[in-house]
Amino acid sequence: MSSTPPEQAAPTLSQEAGHSVLTLPEHILEVLSDSGEGAQKCGQSFGAVSAKMGNGAWTVEIIPAEIQPPPRTPDGASGVRIRIGTQKITNWGNRTKLAIAFNDQVLLSRHRLNALADDAIILLDQAPENHDNPQVRQEWIEALEELSSRNYRLIKVPLEEECLKIVDNPRQGKNMFALGMLSWVYLRDLERVKEQIAHQFRHKAKAVYERNVRLLEAGVSWAEQNLDFRFDIPTTTPDEDMVVMNGNTALGLGAMAAGLEMCSMYPITPATSVSHFLSESFDRLGGMVHQAEDEIAAIGVALGASFAGKVAFTVTSGPGLALKTEFIGLAVMTETPLVIVDVQRGGPSTGLPTKVEQSDLLAAVFGQPGDCPKVVLAPSTIEECFHCMITARRIAETFRCVVMVMSDANLATGQQPFKRPTLDPRWQSVQPDLSEVPVGTEPLQWDPETGLSPRLIPGQPGGMFTATGLAHNEGSHIRSDPENNQRTMELRSRKLAVLQSTLKPPVVVGPEHADLLVVGWGSTRGAIEEAIEKGQQEGLSVAALNLTFLSPLQPGLGEIFENYKKVMTVEINYSDELDQPYINAENRRRGQLAWLLRATTLVDVDCWTRVFGQPLCPGDILDVIRGKLAAGGQS
To answer: Considering only CA atoms, which of 18, 495, 481 is closest in space to residue 226?
Structure first.
């Protein structure tokens, strides 16, 4: 990250053909609509174009919990937030400075969540103001009265009226008209925008593309004639080739780069688009996507394919992970390589299907009956979503184990530019050795020091054996005697210790000695590190640490923690606050990473967590850090 947070640089104002042009280091905007009106497609297009032009960018989709929520309701708000800047952007930022809303009710949703800056500019479709339905007109009046509690600059836009000049159904045109307005306001290259539209509608008829371009140009024209402001977020030409994608696409690309050959999954929000991406291209590399009838079948197919010698993985989210539990145990017991991707969402049960949480960590590490040692790692950026799949495949095959990759909804739909990966043949899996097995070789011929054993493939001459989920010996023969069970437990567990011996300690961001160390994992990294950087510029004695490996934990944590007066985690899962009724230091439930760190290091690790269903804001984290240090680091 830059040593100077973007918003601390002084903005400059200039005039251009009657319009003010404010040059800024960064800006946050949102596009909001009812479900099905295409706000997300508009925002993702704008984010992708901005990244391709040389801006740092991060997008977060705003998705309602229901598949088809009632229109014109705050709970049904759908959309996207885009943060763009002159430098690298790693999170969605704090408050939105400009919003385009397709109706008053979806705007109320963001207003009530305090997502908008007090001085935000709002471009609001004025169609409800004179609607035929008196209830809609009354809701408009009440909404504007509620919005008047802030110092928003509200600009009415004839969005529906202008779209009806081009399309019969304005719901199918508002998003491209809005994209045109944004393109003008933010000085976007219109040809790049048209290229993006062409890419998005590449599977549609030419007439569909042409109609959307007309809507885009109409939005540009209206903005030029009616708006008196523009924002210039300077772009920089990158020194190296870049790519722009979301986390689910990066997971799919990483799987292909890793030589994974088969994905078996059951559709579940927010993981499904991994299979959508793979379905378009996986077969060209010899891969296959299998859509199973349910989550149990999906992992069963992946496990069977892996046992047969293929390199397989399955993708799911929290409720699906619960259903996969028994097969995960079978994979551990048979020591069959398997990669499982968990794109986390809000829980428990079906919880918040479209919202972000990091609440599956303990389930991933401990969520099977019996002792089931497995590897758990978590990407923290879109780029790491790509590379984590390569790491996961290599570990799964080398250690004959289950590897779980813990992504989340923030990474899944967020777009970010990163350096184009240079493919390395070493990333690819090695075809299994199918030569005749030497006489006397056991199917689980464990090395007594490492617990590792060669992998036999069904059909390999001399390698036939019966796999079992029951306790067994080296020959995969069922054994229930005490000594055998103790020994096999030791060897399966020891593989994690061997893996940990190859890992490097995590890198501290900030001073090696300070009053406070903030530890995070997964997609919270960008917000935490931005908050830490700003805190350091205020003179706060604070540092940050991000963990990628969560089972086994990266080495050296105890020694690192000793250098700080207080250690705390920041997470998107639930923890009790000490000032709540009946809650005390003994019965308090803590953040899930905090549980792990306390148990592993015996350090009194504190935590600050939120489960609002939204990514964390760096400003909120900074407020917590200030309060923690002002209180002397006490809980």
So the answer is: 18
CATH of domain 12-232: 3.40.920.10
- Cα–Cα nearest to 502, from 442, 453, 569, 450: 450
Output the pLDDT for position 432: 82
Instruction: Say which DSSP state 337 is in.
Output: -
Round to whole Å and give the CA distance between 115 and 113: 5
Q: What is the mean pLDDT of residues 555-567?
A: 98
Spell out the domain ranges in the chain. Answer: 12-232, 243-423, 436-502, 514-630
CA distance 262 to 500: 28
Spatial distance between the Cα atoms of 59 and 97, rounded to a whole number of angstroms: 15
Write the class of the CATH domain 243-423.
Answer: alpha beta
Q: What is the mean pLDDT of the chain?
A: 95
The pLDDT of residue 15 is above 80: no
- Range in 33-42, 264-273, 423-432 with the lowest mean pLDDT: 423-432
Between residues 311 and 360, the one the model is more confident about: 360
Q: Where are the beta strands (DSSP E) in 409-485?
A: 415-419
Locate 134 and state its tokens: 């008196």
- The pLDDT tens digits for 189-201 are 999 999 999 999 9
Is the Cβ–Cβ distance between 594 and 606 less than 8 Å?
yes
Q: Which of 132, 78, 118, 119 is nearest to 101 (CA)?
A: 78
Residue found under tokens 């005749």:
436
Strands ordered across the beta sheet of 549-551: 288-291, 262-265, 312-316, 338-344, 402-408, 375-377, 549-551
What does DSSP say about strands 514-521 and 564-571: parallel, antiparallel, or unpaired? parallel
Q: Which residue has the tokens 């529906």?
A: 160
DSSP tag of 554: P
Tell me how far CA of residue 11 lies from CA of 181, 204, 230, 233, 585, in angstroms: 22, 42, 13, 10, 47
Tokens 């040692």 correspond to what residue? 373
User: With 50 as the cut, is the pLDDT of residue 1 above it?
Assistant: no
CA nearest neighbour of 416 among 93, 79, 4, 55: 55
Q: Is the pTM of this model over 0.90?
A: yes
Domains 12-232 and 514-630 share a fold: no
The CATH number of 514-630 is 3.40.50.920
Cβ atoms of residues 521 and 358 within 8 Å: yes
User: How confident is the model over 405-432, as a mean pLDDT?
Assistant: 93
Closest CA to 44 of 247, 245, 230, 203: 245
